[in-house]
UniProtKB/TrEMBL annotation:
The gene is cdd. This is Cytidine deaminase. Its cofactor is Zn(2+). This enzyme scavenges exogenous and endogenous cytidine and 2'-deoxycytidine for UMP synthesis. Its EC number is 3.5.4.5. One of its GO terms (cellular component) is cytosol. Residues 1-128 form the CMP/dCMP-type deaminase domain. Coiled coil: none annotated. Keywords: Hydrolase, Metal-binding, Zinc. The keyword Manganese does not apply. It comes from the Bacteria. It is an enzyme of class 3 (hydrolase). One of its GO terms (molecular function) is zinc ion binding.
């Protein structure tokens, strides 16, 4: 799947975000190695620590359906520009896929950038460190 199309799916997913506190919508679209896409959005609750990010929502949905091999994830936000995954999401990404490509940007601005998890989380802590 082209990065532009995956980013479009992330932009669509962000519209389902539940963000009564921050008003900052984020959507993610995760492409598995077998071509299936799982989407996710951020979900906020009054106890902020229980909030879940779009990236983790998509990854956890895929894992819960038995998917464990991922190719890339696109992330889109209401700022219509690059929005990088938070630290917790980066740690979850590296746990499940050290080769995952991370697509960020905006289709309306024709900004599409691709990163690796090593770009975003160098010297990551993994199961190899246990």
């Amino acid at each position: 799947m082209e990065n532009f199309k995956l980013l479009e799916l992330a932009e669509q997913a962000k519209e389902n975000a539940y963000v009564p506190y921050s008003k900052f919508k984020v959507g993610a679209a995760l492409l598995t190695k077998n071509g299936k896409v799982y989407t996710g959005c951020n979900v906020e609750v009054a106890s902020f620590g229980a909030t879940n990010c779009a990236e983790r929502t998509a990854i956890f949905k895929a894992i819960s359906e038995g998917e464990t091999e991922f190719e890339k994830i696109a992330v889109a936000s209401s700022n219509d520009d690059e929005t990088f995954p938070c630290g917790i999401c980066r740690q979850v990404i590296v746990e499940f896929s050290k080769d995952l490509k991370i697509i960020l940007g905006s289709t309306s601005k024709n900004i599409i950038k691709e990163y690796t998890i090593d770009d975003l989380l160098p010297h990551s802590f993994t199961s190899d460190d246990l």
